[in-house]
């Protein structure tokens, strides 16, 4: 029994140290740049400038299926699956647009890259593209994401925007910031594009 307790204690300590290390590593990871424009009760408004993305398209219609089919492909690209066999640093967040037609999953590429210096993916299903600059509304939630939790926060964001008289366009999208093995301090977001002219009118 004593050996068991000592072994269990060591394993718990190692697990705790691993989680601390993971959390500290995440804080050092480059995060996609944005500017907070306004903070509301249940959401905030941000401006995102252009960013380079590595993206896959999929017929998956759930968070789990899209993550399973897309993450490995994109990870292979940044870990050397390209024409230069180049390692590209992982950034956050991972973008997911889950809908009933064509869903997409994208990795944000480090800010030092552009169309001219990015290596070409070996996998032809991966597209390299620049995102459009946009204003978005964002609602945050913690814990582990799922299709149900994402849909719940889509509803929260929809109702919050309606209360403020703000219209939106395009699909609601999910942003995930943490690896699956991180248990604590997880960050998830649901975003949707806003009308820039409408925001400018609200300022005046």
Topology at a glance:
Layout: H1 2-28, E1 35-39, E2 44-48, E3 52-58, H2 63-78, E4 94-97, E5 103-108, E6 126-130, E7 134-141, H3 147-164, E8 168-176, E9 188-194, H4 196-203
Antiparallel strand pairs: 1-2, 2-7, 3-5, 3-6, 4-5, 4-8, 7-9, 8-9
Keywords:
9 strands, alpha+beta, Multidrug-efflux Transporter 1 Regulator Bmrr, Chain A
Task: Outline the structure in words.
The chain has 204 residues and is of the alpha+beta class. The chain has one domain (2-203): Regulatory factor, effector binding domain (Multidrug-efflux Transporter 1 Regulator Bmrr, Chain A, Alpha-Beta Barrel), CATH 3.20.80.10. The protein is built from four helices and nine strands. It has a nine-stranded antiparallel sheet with strand order 1-2-7-9-8-4-5-3-6. The relative contact order is 0.18. The model is unreliable at 11-26 (pLDDT under 50).
């Amino acid at each position: 029994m004593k050996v068991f307790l000592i072994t269990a204690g060591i394993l718990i300590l190692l697990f705790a140290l691993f989680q601390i290390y993971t959390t500290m590593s995440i804080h050092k990871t480059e995060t996609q740049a944005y500017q907070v424009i306004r903070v509301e009760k249940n959401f905030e408004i941000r401006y995102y400038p252009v960013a380079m993305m590595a993206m896959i398209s999929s017929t998956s219609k759930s968070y789990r299926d899209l993550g399973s089919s897309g993450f490995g492909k994109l990870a292979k690209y940044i870990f050397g699956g390209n024409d230069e066999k180049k390692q590209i640093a992982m950034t956050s967040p991972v973008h997911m647009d889950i809908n009933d037609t064509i869903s997409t999953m994208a990795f944000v590429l480090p800010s030092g890259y552009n169309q001219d210096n990015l290596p070409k993916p070996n996998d032809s299903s991966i597209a390299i593209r620049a995102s459009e600059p946009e204003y978005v509304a964002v609602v945050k939630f913690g814990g582990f994401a799922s299709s149900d939790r994402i849909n719940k926060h889509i509803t929260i964001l929809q109702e919050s925007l309606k209360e403020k008289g703000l219209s939106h366009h395009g699909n609601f999208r999910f942003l995930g910031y943490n690896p699956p093995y991180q248990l604590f301090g997880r960050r998830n977001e649901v975003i949707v594009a806003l009308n820039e002219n409408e925001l400018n009118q609200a300022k005046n």
